Amino acid sequence: MSARAQSADRRINSVTQATASGELYLSISNLWKAFGEFLALKDISLDIHEGEFICFLGPSGCGKTTLLRAIAGLDLQTKGSVMQDGKDVSNLPPSERDFGIVFQSYALFPNLTIEKNIAFGLENTGRDKSEIAVRVHELLELVGLPDQGTKYPAQLSGGQQQRIALARAIATNPGLLLLDEPLSALDAKVRVHLRHEIKELQRKLGVTTVMVTHDQEEALTMADKIVVMNQGVIEQVGSPTEIYREPANLFVADFIGEMNQLPATARGKAGISIGADSDIVKSQTHHFSDGETIVAAIRPEDVIPHGNGTSASDETDVIGDPENVFTVKLAEMEFLGSFWRCRLQNEYFGASELIADFSINAVRRFELEEGKDMVVELPQDRLMAFPRVEAN
Predict the structure, then answer these.
(1) 3 state DSSP class of 380
(2) How far apart are CA 153 and CA 111, in angstroms?
(3) Is 0.85 topped by the overall pTM?
(4) Domain 258-390 sits in CATH 2.40.50.100
(5) 391 has a pLDDT exceeding 50
(6) Could you tell me which residue ranges the ABC transporter domain spans (predicted)?
(7) What percentage of the chain exceeds 70 in pLDDT?
(8) I want to staple 58 with a disulfide (CB 3.0 to 4.6 A). Which of 49, 62, 90, 95 is the partner?
């Protein structure tokens, strides 16, 4: 094994140990960024630990790319600080910061071979040619393209070019890897395959990684933690499971995955009434005052089917709370391969429809058909309440 490879192994072991102990690697404190009168970032504070894979997720214009560029020093913050590995890098130029970066557009040099593209950053580090050649070969092996070194970027597919861009970014063993929507220019199948490869590579190297994406699926499948952003602020930070199952507010709930939103009224601290004059149903514990208008929210996959019937009282297969059982009309069914997306109507919902995702087996078992009545349960632990003012 080369000295360079041994160094990389030592780094991986060090990062693994640091991650286990929760060592802080990147700390962003009270960071603001203004472009003239427009505030792109508003008082951002965030801690990232060594070895973590973090995704900045949000709609276009939310500030996620601006935050990534501030970390890299490509757009200096208006105020606030960035600490990396115990060092204040807030005002350092990009050349003096320890990171590698991969852009959406690959940014490979079209007139250089793949080997020379990867070697470009290594040539300014004082290494001799033989050491650089060994390192380039190691990296080509690492990204699964050992025989492509003599080709030019135009001779490779988009997915292959992005792997080369990744190899170039990690060539100098940076402490931080920044990915600016690296998969958005690729087709769906290549994107799914490459996101798995990037995650496996990140785990192997143990490098702290920050990725910007607007793709919810990418964030949910790749990240250790997701930072959900909107209009220049952080709405929530958490694991993919926490973000999806326990959204902090209605924006997060609505942005990540599908979410039903129904007009409701607070009844006690763990109850609501949905729509007009409906009975009280049990919900997650909330902080709203009795009688306050709110939004009831539940994900389509959390709606439980209990079968065909004319009324909830006729249903004998009810599991859970009878208070949370509704008779609905199955207004529309849409086949989506592994499940059916169903639109359910009920007099209490008013103009709103309840969207439910039922498995193929459930549709077959209960003989569900458009136009028929059926019984569904809205389980208490999945029925959330949010302020009405946050509704879309």
Answers:
(1) helix
(2) 8
(3) yes
(4) yes
(5) no
(6) 26-256
(7) 89
(8) 62
